Amino acid sequence: MADPMRIRAQVAGDKTTVRVLMSHEMETGQRKDAAGKVIPAWFIQEVSAALNGKPVLTAQWGPAVSKNPFMQFTVKGAKAGDKVSVSWKDNKGETRTDETTVS
Questions:
Q1: DSSP 8-state secondary structure symbol assigned to residue 38
Q2: Domains in the chain with CATH codes
Q3: Letter string b/e over residues 36-68, b meaning 16 or more CB atoms within 10 A of that residue's CB
Q4: Non-local CB neighbours of 23 within 8 Å, separated by 6+ positions
């Protein structure tokens, strides 16, 4: 399983900024290793986020996203103490979900 995501959620007025740093190799399937063999594609396909269990974001990604991707988005209506969770699923079926508390 991949390393935990680093998630920060900070309130500023009526908006909360959520920053996520994901740990994933994100291979395109176009690179070759030292022996000349193609490295198989391995990338995050779907990312979703929820505030207190209610979905607030869904994104479809492809192989063009960089290694260890960073994502930032804004949510209205979140308060300090609310829970933000972020999940991803890659093309090999692996998944990861992590959460943080809004501060």
A1: B
A2: 6-101 (2.60.40.10)
A3: eeeeebbbbbebebbbeeeebeeeebeeebeee
A4: 2, 3, 4, 5, 68
Q: Please name every residue paired with 39 in a beta bridge, in sequence order, or none if there are none.
A: none
Question: Looking at the DSSP assignment, which residues form a beta bridge with residue 15?
Answer: 12, 76
* pLDDT digits 0-9 by tens, 34-85: 999 999 999 999 999 999 999 999 999 999 999 999 999 999 999 999 999 9
Average pLDDT rounded to a whole number, residues 8-16: 95
pTM: 0.90
**Cα separation of 90 and 24, whole Å?**
9
> Can you tell me the distance from the alpha carbon of 62 to that of 72, in angstroms, rounded to the nearest whole number?
17
